[in-house]
Structure formats: structure tokens, C-alpha cells
Amino acid sequence: MAKRVGAVKRAGGLRRPDPAGTGRAMSEHNNQRPERNLRGRAGRMRGGRGSGRAGGGQVRFWGRHAVEAALKNPDRVHRKLWATREGVAELDGELPADFTVEYASPADLARLVARDAPHQGLVLDCAPLEELSLDDLPHADPARPILVLDQVTDPHNLGAILRSAAAFDAVAIVTQDRHAPPESGTVAKAASGALEIVPWVRVVNLSRALEDLAEAGYWRIGLDGGAPAQFGSVLPTGPVALVLGAEGEGLRPNVAGHCDVLARLPIAPAMESLNVSNAAAVALYAVAVR
Q1: Residues 13-37, mean pLDDT to the nearest whole number
Q2: Is there a contact between 38 and 108 (Cβ–Cβ < 8 Å)?
């Protein structure tokens, strides 16, 4: 592999793969120890199977895109990687020589993640990213929208929205610190690496955050399937904040009241609505090509 997985932060006693390829792992003190069977121990790990949270203020990621992106993120503190040798070989880069890797079988790795989750031979424990505020974001840019999510609680939807946000170069997503999924393996897997790319700002009060965005120069457009205006007709030339609500309930009245305008996507009458992640992708595309 030609390039190195960049700027890996790590902690604790670290091991490196045996350079002789003997199928054993080697500690920093060169004590030989074989691969461990995780059977039994994995099922008792704090956080439980499928939570995506490893306990002790850590999160657990799985799958090549999510793990590789986390390893490349210099702002991410990594704890430990469980992997098959084939999974490590497929990473786009090389792990530092002293990075903690515990080699295991695919069946044992499956016990560390959500049931039937495609771990692709890679499971990573790491610390959550440091919290961000709106003040940490760059100045408003007409070419880069910001997404504000009102009680979007499904982690698969949040991950898909992050992926679209990365694809269309959104400046950030904003959610409440409550009524939103935590950073987790499920979010990271659905985001396919975008969790490490798109800043995620959590706020106490979305209405107050929308006021701050207006002061920063954003035109706030709330997506509402019952709005009279079509989305394309209300797009400004300046910076845009796209405000999306949960499926079914939509935007809460106070959040909708803090938007400059409400608009609907022009979908066929035969279909009542779009999944919130699909609606976000369509709106981001419309902003990109206006």
C-alpha cells in the first residue's frame, strides 16, 4: 500500500502485527501471543451488541469505509482495532507499527457489532469527536448550505444525510443534543465515511440556533410538504440553511416559525412524501445547481 493512514491518535498499550507474518500478534516487549478467540467475551462487552457504543465514552465503528475514514481523521482518538488480516490489507494506507490490532475471525468480529452488520473484517473502538458550536463553523458561503435537522431520530437517516451533505459540500449539520441519534457505529456505517468529513453541531435549542444562523447571513428554508411555495422558487443567491423535520410529524411549529420561508419539493401527487434523507439529497442538489 502506497500511502499511510494519516495522523492516527491512540492510547494505551499498543501492539503491532508480526512482520514475519506468523499469524501471531507481538507486544511492544516482543512477547509472542497468538490471536485471541473473542467468543463469550465479545457478547459481554459494555454497551451491548448492536449499540455501536463500546462503553467508557467510546464508540465502535465497523465496515471498511467507516473504519478507514476514522483512521484517517487526525481529530479522532483511536483505541483499538479488531480485524481480519484481509480487512487490514484492504485499508487505503498502512497502520503505524505500534497501532493496537487484535486479529480475529469474521465470526468473532460479528459478535462485536450489530446483528447481521457487514463488518468487512474491521471493527474499531475510538473516542467520540470533540463537540462543536456554530461559532466553530466558517463564515457563510453561498456555495455551501447548512442542514438543520429537527428531531430526526433514526440513525440510518442521519447517516444517509451526512453522506449527501459530504457529497454536496455542505458546511455542517445541526441537530439538538437531545431527540437526535448519538454518534454511533450505525450512523458511521450509513454515512460511509462522511461522519469524519461533515462537522456535526449539537445545540440545546434549535430555534435559537436558527436565529444565530440568520444573523450569520443564512436564508432559512423549511421543507414542508404542505407549503404553497415550491422549493426552487424560494432559493436565494446567498447562503442557505435547509431545515428538515422528522418523517410523519415534520417540523415542529416553533422551528417552522423560525424559518424565513416554508417550501415543498415538487413530487407527484401519487406519493405523499419522501424519506427525510432523500428529501435532503434532492434539496442539496437543487442548491448546488441553482
Answers
A1: 35
A2: yes
